[in-house]
């Protein structure tokens, strides 16, 4: 069964039921489920939003604020306070590993976390448990001391899935691997059993890196979507103690990556040994080019 069907089960029954009627050949092409107040349900297929003819029960539906509140409560499993940290960052991670992005009116008091006051739209990205075979070139890099590596590509180019495969590969080589999985997208909770990996989730990445360095004695740290400079400073401390890292970064080209302050900082401190550019969403998980520093 495609992960699309698992994702829609996180929605209220009145919405999950008609969405589940989508034919399998179309369901496996869905990347996103978009819900907005005053609008109909849209599914992103091939990069374009649409409401497929295979969902006649939803053709005339226009979501109301009350329905959006029910959707939000259901996504949070009836316990909004349990997701306060994620909501403040604009998302909710579902049990199946999918992430529901939230948009609307937030209130952010000085020095405090943002509070969602009015939800206007939800975007559920369908996370599929695909595995890409690691290329021999990538396996060769992992065999050596790579210090720091970036996996770069545009959205939907397979960065997270490739990172998941690398984690399994390193674990099979009996490396001590700490996976920083802030949003539980790399390894959803039900997939972590029996994996010889140390996985830290639900904690901001910079803080999680510090926790891993202090308590887990990792040889390699993996993290998705390299973000602010606090994460880089934390990684730099690990590099000084011999810890290697692999991180993903949104960049569709070398020129775009070179303009990112994260890349410039890593290059300046000598922490970037290999940069892997993926082909893109038309060939997810496939390497376009590898450059070494």
From TrEMBL:
Record keywords, A-Z: ATP-binding, Nucleotide-binding
UniProt xrefs under InterPro entries: AAA+_ATPase, P-loop_NTPase, Spore_III_AA_AAA+_ATPase
Pfam families: Spore_III_AA
Entry annotated with the keyword Isomerase: no
Domain AAA+ ATPase residues, every copy: 145-269
SUPFAM superfamilies noted in UniProt: P-loop containing nucleoside triphosphate hydrolases
Taxonomic superkingdom: Bacteria
Xref: PANTHER family: KINASE-RELATED, P-LOOP CONTAINING NUCLEOSIDE TRIPHOSPHATE HYDROLASES SUPERFAMILY PROTEIN
The protein's name in its UniProt record: Flp pilus assembly complex ATPase component TadA
Species of the source: Faecalibacterium butyricigenerans
